[in-house]
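Hey L., structure's done. Input below.
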Amino acid sequence: MPTLEEVRTRVERIVHDISYHGDVADDYINNALRRCAGFVLLPDLESSGNITTSSTASAVAIPLSWNFDRNLYLCSAVVEQPSKIKVLSSIALLAREYPDYRLNVAQGNIEACSASRTAFAYYKTPTEAVVLRCAFYKKPTLLVRDADEPSILPDFLHYDLLVSGACAAIFTEIEEGIDGIMVNTNKYSKKFDKAIEDLKDYFKTGQSRPEPSRASSFI
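Output:
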């Protein structure tokens, strides 16, 4: 499995521009890693955490400790309540299915929930604060030390994803304003796009997603 140092060395060898070496190259490599996590639900990023609701509001801030990225897909009350909790894929869908959500704070057992980038929303609002256990996808841990490895990605795609992704972004800046076709930008963009498709195929099954029409609970 290649390390950050090995990935960086390849990027520097391809780019041939000292202004994109070292820590600068690392920034582009990590951005490519973030893009991989954004395009594909990576199993190693599945995580879980607790959140406490309010008794006076229909949404609370997502805890920073979650390192939350996206795709809330499971939710249960830590202390069991009579009704199961549905996980909806967006707050807009929550508001569509439960019109009262935006009109007033309806009191009762929580029936459904959803999440945005920073907020966890639910309907109904419990009369007392409730602790919920949630499952979701967290943000990837960035590569910082030379020996760090992008272990959330399949070994055979490390270079195609991270080197191509970093080089495509760098060449977009280098070749901007140059007359003619952006040869290197197009070359490495296509290699990255192909690698993303391979990544999607690799993780085609077994991805955890919200089920809008089904109640959810932890086993």
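The radius of gyration is 21 Å. Strands lie at 46-52, 59-61, 68-77, 85-87, 112-115, 119-123, 131-138, 215-216.

-- N.
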